[in-house]
Design brief:
mainly alpha; 20 helices; about 70% helix
Amino acid sequence: MSSRALIDHFFRHEYGRLVSTLSRRVGVEHLEAVEDAAQSALMAALETWTKSELPANPSAWLFRAAINELLGGLRKGARRRRILERLGPTSPTDPEPIPTLSGEMQDDLLRMLFVCCDDAIPQRSQLVLALKVLSGFDVREIALRLFTSEANVYKRLTRARARLRSRPLDLDALDSAQHAARLPAVLAILHLLFTEGYLSHHAEHAIRGELSDEAIRLATLLAAHPVGRRPETFALVALMHLHGARMDARVDAAGSLLLLEEQDRSRWDAAQVSEGLSWLAASSDGDVLSRYHVEAGIAAEHCLAPSFAETRWDRVVELYGLLRRIAPSEVHELNRAVAVAEWKSPAAGLRVLDALAPSPALAASYQWAAVQADLHRRAGRVEEAARHRAHALEAAPTPAVEALLRRRLGRD
């Protein structure tokens, strides 16, 4: 791997782990200072590693640089002494080299996810905090993914950080009851992390496989731990694998996004499909039926269909109906309309949309406009299709999505 490629890797992969490890060492009450130190360390790496040889242990180099930056920023003696006391033997003032941190970071990231999911913080704010602090999402990406405004994201982020400052918590202090109460929010964050990797709102990367891989890694780690060894966790891991199996086939040789019906199914990863089905079978042990069970069932229908035309659309519609009962969501209803259109007719799909009163955020989104445009076009309603098409193209968050919509929705 080249120096530049390795640096890019660390910018994508190490930020959240570095923030998590530092927060565990110095306390979450210093979260904002930790974020600044982590960013400074990564910028120092960008400048230093491109001009000289890479360090033998890049993770330890980043940790040392971040600690030095953090201590330099906290110049008041009392705060500095408290942090040095918490750092203990890993303090950069010690003559011994900093140990390898890669294994420890994995656990710290999960610990920090549970801290971010403090039940005193509203759930949407928990999502914002975790996506920003641990996953490196920018405010625009979070706003698009959560169907909200950037101003609202800033507001939620500020309040969540203030909450952590006002009630600092040791990352090792949560008991089993607190872990259990926070597990649903942690699963929701991992699901969003995977989804952003699967179809990214990043301007330059339509698919961010490293995010999806990280979500699978964390979810699998959680599923192996007593805290997360539950059917809904297994179902989420199943869902990720069943979607992840199609990842490589979602783009063509030029890197353009492909629709499901355009994908070469021979490029789907059969081993990962099998892995997903195994996790789905494991998730059926017990009486729990979560949204992840149903969504994994839908993904399994697509993976097992010999072709797009041979998909059991009646079964997919049935599963979306079940999803509507256990986890109501206007986005799920939008997807159900698409499935109904494939099963019965575009007009039938439009009737599903007519019964849905979308929120302002969904109504303004490219997803809503694109489905409307496609179904109206296929139903022969040219004027309505053109109006929704224009909206969809204008609202497309990335050039890759815009190109996909132009191909799907036809010419002007």
